[in-house]
Design goal:
Blueprint: E1 2-5, E2 8-11, H1 22-45, H2 48-64, H3 75-96, H4 106-109, H5 121-133, H6 136-147, H7 152-159, H8 163-183
Antiparallel strand pairs: 1-2
Helix pairs in contact: 1-2, 1-3, 2-3, 5-8, 6-7, 6-8, 7-8
Length: 185
């Protein structure tokens, strides 16, 4: 299934067909993926400003490295990886200097088209707060597996870890979330 943007075929869940140059492709990619990438960055950092900066850096990097890309059909994966890496840098910087972050707001994590009424506001706020408290790697795995709906293998590739590591961190994160949610009842 696909749609057309200015004469270029854009698959619904994939990268645009990028036959033209970077000046034509980057705006198409931006329109197709920016909002989801900002939500990904926000889910990883809990800071909307840092998420937007991570996405901006990812697009700037893609623009600069356009000519060296081997597979232009993998630009969405390139952008996702760049956002995840930039968000990791944000966490490293926060380790050196304390920086207040806004609490995760569930309404910023909801994908367009999801019926917000179907989510109970209080429960989603508690869950977002619990996910924000997870260790970085566990939070990354949870976001990739359950927010991005990636497989274990795709999560491992995106995070540059083994499938076993994804399984281990997902298991630990789910157990911690379960325990925290039970304790808060």
């Amino acid at each position: 299934m696909s749609r057309r943007l200015r004469g270029v075929e854009v698959p619904e869940r994939g990268a645009p067909a990028l036959d033209g140059g970077r000046d034509e492709a980057i705006p198409l990619l931006f329109r197709a993926h920016c909002a989801d990438l900002v939500r990904l960055g926000y889910a990883l950092t809990g800071d909307r400003g840092a998420a937007e900066e991570a996405v901006q850096d990812a697009f700037v990097s893609l623009y600069r490295n356009w000519r060296t890309l081997r597979d232009r059909t993998a630009t969405h994966a390139y952008l996702r990886r760049a956002v995840v890496n930039r968000c990791r840098s944000v966490h490293r910087l926060r380790g050196r200097r304390v920086r207040a972050t806004e609490p995760l707001r569930p309404e910023l994590l909801i994908r367009p088209g999801v019926d917000a009424d179907a989510l109970t506001h209080e429960a989603s706020q508690r869950l977002a707060a619990q996910v924000a408290r997870l260790p970085q790697r566990q939070r990354e795995v949870i976001v990739c597996r359950f927010y991005l709906d990636l497989t274990e293998r795709a999560t491992a590739e995106l995070l540059d870890v083994s499938v076993g590591s994804v399984k281990k961190h997902a298991s630990r994160a789910l157990a911690a979330l379960h325990d925290q949610m039970e304790a808060s009842r």
